[in-house]
Design brief:
Elements lengths: L19 E6 L3 H5 L6 H17 L4 E6 L1 H4 L4 H4 L8 E3 L8 H10 L3 E6 L2 H14 L3 E5 L8 H14 L2 E3 L1 H9 L5 H14 L2 H18 L1
Parallel strand pairs: 1-2, 1-4, 2-3, 4-5, 5-6
Helix pairs in contact: 2-8, 2-9, 6-7, 9-10
């Protein structure tokens, strides 16, 4: 165990493509059915966008499930983002008690870990708090996770923040990795993800692109 804390202010606290790794936990049918704090279709949209963003920026990403023969395979739109990956299937409720998952994180060499999971109060909170104790800088994505009630989700978030973890949303994850729109190669990939998953922002961006195309033609 470690009582190590990490700074919460300054540029170095923000994630970058070469400083973080992403761990996505238990986005499976059984767990999805229990999510009550967020519209399920929105949560699925967000976690797929999160995965696509990580892939676009080259962020190492782990998919893991718990007893998939009972809880179901990880959602296909999510595994389709990483077709080459065989997710780690666990029996431990706490992902950080599974040595294969811990070894994967260690082998990335990254000290900043970003988590999203179902459910917030259990399968997200447990490994977040555990990894903090092992000295990692830990972030968690609230809108790509979900709890069994609004209270459960909120209490899970409160517990993780109290332990020292940093909350973020899918758009924040994307924005911190992009950081500068002058990075045009990455900006094109970011724009594509926004168009596919950005809701109202996607509509606005599509309209802007249409206007720009019309102006260029004129």
């Amino acid at each position: 165990m470690s009582d190590q804390t990490f700074p919460k202010t300054g540029l170095e606290t923000m994630i970058t493509p070469d400083s973080c790794a992403l761990i996505l936990i238990d986005h499976q049918p059984f767990q999805v059915a229990g999510v009550k704090n967020i519209d399920v279709s929105l949560m699925v949209n967000n976690v797929v966008a999160l995965a696509k963003t990580a892939k676009a920026f080259g962020v190492p990403t782990l998919l893991t499930s718990v007893i998939k023969d009972r809880g179901g395979n990880i959602l296909k739109p999510l595994t389709d983002v990483f077709p080459e990956q065989t997710p780690i299937d666990r029996t431990f409720i706490n992902t950080w008690e599974d040595e294969k998952c811990v070894a994967w994180a260690r082998e990335t060499g990254r000290k900043k870990l970003v988590f999203a999971a179902l459910w917030t109060e259990v399968c997200l909170a447990f490994p977040v708090i555990h990894a903090l104790g092992d000295g990692y800088e830990v972030y968690f994505v609230t809108d790509a996770s979900g709890g069994t009630s609004q209270e459960s989700h909120e209490m899970g978030i409160a517990r993780m923040i109290q332990a020292g973890a940093v909350p973020m949303t899918t758009v924040v994850f994307m924005s911190e990795l992009q950081r500068d729109w002058a990075r045009v190669d990455q900006a094109a990939k970011t724009a594509e993800i926004i168009l596919e998953h950005g809701g109202a922002s996607a509509s606005a961006l599509a309209w802007e692109l249409q206007l720009m195309a019309g102006a260029a033609a004129a």
